[in-house]
Amino acid sequence: MTKGYGIFRQEAVDVEPDDVPQTVNTDGGQATPLAWRAWFPRVVVRRCFLHGWLSIRDGCQKHPLFHTLSEKIGQAYHASDRRTFSQRLRRVREWAQRTLSGEILERTLRLCGRAQEYGPAYAHPQGPRTSTMLDRVRRSRNGYFVGCQHLHGSTAATPLHARAWALLHNFAPWSPQTQRAHDGQRCPVERLNGHRYHENWLHNLLVSASLAGYRHRSDPPQTPV
After folding, report:
1. Which residue of 27, 49, 92, 164 has the fewest C-beta atoms within 10 A of its own C-beta?
2. What one-character DSSP code corresponds to residue 225?
């Protein structure tokens, strides 16, 4: 993962040399924060609150008190400040210990015990508290790879395949309805950049990718020790 995020760092620096990520939202695994801190030692790692709730939903959705629990967790999530957030999570813990048992209790206590990991989000209100936006993109990508029977061929072909999907995802035109919802912008890249190089979407892609995504060719980054 460190090697993979090194590619992200190289391409991000190529676009904006002085830009350094201030925060990153992760799903809670240990490998991702370690990889990010290897490249950006001062980045603030924020745990995705959504994944904590999804852990409860995926294992206990049929529990008769699941919806009541979800409402209480949602109230904690929407707290206006860190202190209120921590207080509400403690109330969820107390209610769960009095009311729940078994797996749903175990998963709820696990979420409530991570208040310190969720709390830093309040010091950086402009950063996302969940990975919802990324998950939407990943859902589309996963559907693509499932449809084409996953990855086949050499190891070198795999990243090229993934990049080909990313180019199409970012440059292929949205539906007319989606374009109207985005004030006439035609694709994700145009929404990000605020302009298009050519009216034909394929020409726009070719111009944008004429240097394979780089303004200046450079050697790949060295993995931190």
Report:
1. 164
2. -
pLDDT score at 137: 84
3-state secondary structure of 220: coil
Q: Give the model's pLDDT for residue 54.
A: 92
Identify the band that residue 197 occupies on the pLDDT scale cut at 50, 70 and 90: confident
- Amino acid identity of 68? T
Residue pLDDT, tens place only, 20-34: 888 998 887 788 889
Token digits of residue 57: 């939903």
Assess whether pLDDT exceeds 80 at residue 220.
no
DSSP conformation letters of 81-140:
SHHHHHHHHHHHHHHHHHH--HHHHHHHHHHHTTHHHHGGGGG-TTS-SS-HHHHHHHHH
CA distance 28 to 49: 9
- The gap from C-alpha 154 to its chain's centroid, in whole angstroms, comes to 28
The DSSP result for 15-48, as a single string, is H-TT----EEEE-S-SHHHHHHHHH-TTPEEEE-
**Is the pLDDT confidence value at 156 over 60?**
yes
pTM: 0.74
